[in-house]
Structure prediction request, 1009 residues.
Amino acid sequence: MRDERDDRPEDERDPADDLRAADPDAVDGEAVDGDAADGAGGVSRRDFLKGLGVGGGVVGAGLLAARAAGAAAQAGPRRLGPGPVSISLLVNGRSRTLSVEPRVTLLDALRDRLELTGAKEVCDRGSCGACTVLVDGRPVYACMMLALDARGRAITTIEGIGTPEKPHPIQSAFVEKDALQCGYCTPGFVVAARALLESRPSPTLDEVREGLAGHVCRCGAYTRVCEAVLAAAGRKGGVS
Amino acid sequence: MSETRRIRIGENGRLEEVEVVVPDGEPAIWDADARLSVVGTAVSRLDGLAKASGRARYTSDVRLPGMLHGRILRSPHPHARIAAIDATAAERLRGVRAVLTFERPDAFAAIAETDEAGKAVEGDAKAPAAGTRSLLYAGDEVAAVAAVSADVAEDALRLVKVRYDILPHVTDLEGARRPDAPPVFPGGNVRPAAVRKRGDIEAGFAQAAVVVEGIWRTPVALHNALETHGAVAAWKDGALTVWAATQGVFGCRDDLAKFFGIEAAKVRVVSEYLGGGFGAKFGAGIAAVVAAMLARKAGAPVRLMLDRAEESLATGNRPSTVQSLRVGAAADGTLTAIHLRSYGTGGIAGGAGCGGPVWNIYACPNVLVEEQDVHTNAGPAAPFRAPGYPQGSFALESALDDLAGRLGLDPLALRRRNYIAKPAKALETQYALASRAIGWDRRPQLGTAGGQDGRLRRGLGLGTAMWPMYGGPPADARVTIHSDGTVECACGTQDIGTGTRTAMAVIVAEVLGVRPAAVRVSLGDTAIGLYSPASGGSVTLNSILPAVRAAAEGAKTKFLAAVAPALGAAPGDLDLAGGEVRTRDGARRMPFAQAAARLRTTVAAAQASRVPNYPGRGIELFGAQFAEVVVDTWTGRVRVVRIAAAHDCGRVVDRLTAESQVCGGVVMGLSTALLEERVIDHDTGLVLNANLEDYKLAGTLEMPEIVPILTDVYDPANNVGVKGLGEPPIVPTAAAIANAVSHAIGRRVRELPITPARVLDLLARPAEA
Prediction:
């Protein structure tokens, strides 16, 4: 749906599509599989906000509120914002309450309000993968999702995957293979690799390359990133 | 005073003994005979898990209590003057704490520009004489705001009312060279050519049996380090602390001290982790200065990180080039003359010279290089990994392949005939190893010339790397052995992703006989007080590691003297290895930590300074890269299949991170060859791809197999024998790929990037001989 809509000129679009875009299930900036993996697919946040009109946060949040109340549409959109709204997010297994304006992205909420700075802001429009987090187990570009849309969903950031003291096998493999240099893209790669290996425990090299194609590493660690993911996949006992 | 030592130098088993004069007290030189147990092995990055777990704290991750967020308003016009500016509404917006406007001509006059070594060069290209400030490119700084959030700051920027007097602009290189072009600076856009010459090119061309010539073009490219430029600034009692995304904490400190008119001791710059720099992050830059200005005005810490568009417009780029190159050779391939005339634009800055390869890589007695900067209304250039070299290499290596074709010589044979002779060079070894890795023997059977006429055509190409810069003093380091057995190494340098932290630990581990992971490394902070040059130009390790080693040796001497009584031995009979203090005969041993507990003081510590390079030793870096490509003649797409990259960095310190450095340079070079180009619409003067979806960077799908080959070269100009490795791996990659594509399709590639459209355009022409 997403790509079809995106390819059409704006005046040919069905407004219902834009409303559907406000449904959180429809707005996942997938970092790994398929169409979004080429870095060009998917809805940019700008398009998304534009599609919703000026009061994007208002409409989106209203729909969400209605959905949460289990009373879709009848009640009509409830106005939220533009000032700060109190929300709860389930991050790394913990419920966190914070106050955000409806326009705040999940990435900014994580980095600026919850001080989870592992996910990085690099392009801020879904082209580089540095901000990848898991939402309900699926990789999402956190710069492409509003914090409000992440309510009620399980969010896993790089901080929830492993620690320096107790690293995840993927993280250990990245260090052993030297699959990083400056390290700024690394959290995004690790999160995406984890999702990749969950869905495909024994990928081929080509599958790893496809799966991580939505991520940019300016230091050029790609070949070693792929080696690290393959090494982690080959570990006895799996990697989850 | 100095003393003379005899050392053995060479590479690949070809060793010779030479004398070097070194300062008194210099540690034993690690020459070809040194037997080392940690140095040269593959050591995992000390900070690898901090990075892979998201715990490493970069400048962009710094959060201080009460911290505000800054944003900069930038010119929407490529050339304009600020006629009037009214920030009242922005100041009144709820949540705004400080607003600055930059209409004064000298707003940023005190910010010096820096060269690739991080040294200040001509300052203030941007200040006109009088009146209000001219904005010289779309993206030039107009105003700045600090507010409680980045979103509110962004709202405030929209409330700043600016009236611009729009001036005529020029952004295209050729247009800017016309006499009637709008001047970017008073005095015209075309700067005087920089001329270098040796020998007599007319005589050289007269001697030539064959002369080839052509014009090659390369575009403006963007650094696009993933962490943007930016800083977090906090003032307290007249002193300034800045966490900065910088490649040089000391240069950044000095710039800030100068700008704010305070002594350097009152400025502390911290950069514990940096998300890439590639040459664009020397000095404070405008972002750090504005962050500190806002923080001072607001009376609160300010975080100012640029966004991707700003990063693309205003923080640096690699200048474009147009290179007219003429090369002559004798019938046997010996070069007789090279003449390069080039021009290019680094926007409002200079730096478009690209004559380094012509001047430095091959031995040719008669060379004339004329390089010219052309100003345009575009963002300023900055040093970009091996400034000038990838561009110059592309033209030179292309011309050499043309020459080989005309002479009926193998392109590798032509290079072998002409490569520059230097002490302990490894080029012959590198050509041999890398050509074998790529399967160069197949070349006559490949490409259009080899009879391939199907849809997919395979080609091979090569290029030679050379980089002439090298570190030296000043650089200081301290090594401390604590009585609890911990070991610390400190130097105020920075690790920009190259592995500096780990390399420091490797040296200390070698000297003290402990594991690298057991060494605590402190860096990235001017408060450490131990100087290091900026990390650029491949000068970090070869500047600081000799000081680290000398400090480690000093600490070792003190430590052994202190613990010798406990082992009942003379200090001279003791050594450190395998985590133990041992007598040289191995009869008596004591674990390192246990020995440390015998220290009567709390520490055994030593500080040391880098001594000058030993005279007469080779400091140049060499390498050779070979590329194999497959060109789809239907779509024009180029797939790079494999790149074999042989390089030398003197003595390898950490094989793992050194190989990563080689692979990384190759990837960046591949991206340069096939994808990267900043695009400006010349009518509006606006950059069209100031983002990461339209400015294409190579990703996993473009990755070839990369074969990094590190050749050990022992020619120590310092006690470690380490050279650098940051720049050389990007130097010949684009050239090797372009030559491989030309070989595959039988037409000479003359412009980067090698897009499908350009390949199809070439294929529409007749095949060349």
Notes: The first strand of chain B starts at residue 2 and ends at 11.
